[in-house]
Amino acid sequence: MAMIAAMKKLDFSRVLPAFPRLGSAPGNVIALGQLSPARYVSATAGATFPATKEPGGTGVAGIFGLKDYEDYRRSLYGGITHRALLVDAVGTLVVPSQPMAQIYRQIGEKYGVEYSEDEILLRYRMAYEKSWGRSRLRYVNDGRPFWQFIVSSSTGCSDSQYFEEVYNYYTTEKAWHLCDPDAERVFKALKRAGVKLAVVSNFDTRLKPVLRALNCEHWFDAVAVSAEVEAEKPNPTIFLKACELLGVKPEDAVHVGDDRRNDIWGARDAGCDAWLWGSDVHSFKEVKQAPFCFFTIFHGQSLRASEYALYFYFTRP
């Protein structure tokens, strides 16, 4: 009892810094600094496709290494403990069920599309990389003008019925599946523990219907879509909006995404922590192992998970 009484008076903020803490990337199973996963280019009227792997990063973490970046964040914010998880949509949470070029080709056969899948993919990439001059944003509202340009450029077919069939296909659950089969279990566990969850995505207004079709929209407390926020990653505005919707400070959130420029650099510019999907973390189970800030009430006090672990160590029988 005397020990418990002493623990009640213990200032954990003074004690915890003396103990080793986990780095920003969760667990020791992550190969820190090896930031070279396959990226995905967004193609929500079509599908995403694997792009060329990138060499080691050229951002803060890429130049100095992830550990140095974590030390930098600690100097700003103290111990890295996250209250919120932000998740990229396409390429991280969900992936296309079939290659984009295959769908464009299959649906397009009855409309006279003659290009091979390889030709469609090449033309798609060329069209997607062109600057979109009709708006500062690619995804405005439902994104139809942008995707009409992409589909017609990729296939050489400007038939409006063809476009509508392709466009509507990518609003159905048949077009997508979850990237990680453990996602539901992990997100529900995090939510029960008090972690705030949000999707942050460069997408048009079809994203929420897609999440509903996949029966996963209710996993999240907020969805920040570029078409609604009027800012696309890597613009930090969309990350700041997600944090605002969750009611957390940017430094208390970590974002997980598969694109170094859009997800990692963008999130860090907003003041969030960020992990690269496929390199820093390979599954949502690994994300769950991170030092999130879980609050538990003991003797009238709120303790973080790390504090509770220390409390339990000193007060166990």
From TrEMBL:
Signal peptide (from-to): none
Annotated SUPFAM superfamilies: HAD-like (SSF56784)
Organism domain of life: Eukaryota
UniProt-listed Pfam families: Hydrolase
The protein, known as: Haloacid dehalogenase-like hydrolase domain-containing protein 3
Provenance organism: Trapa incisa
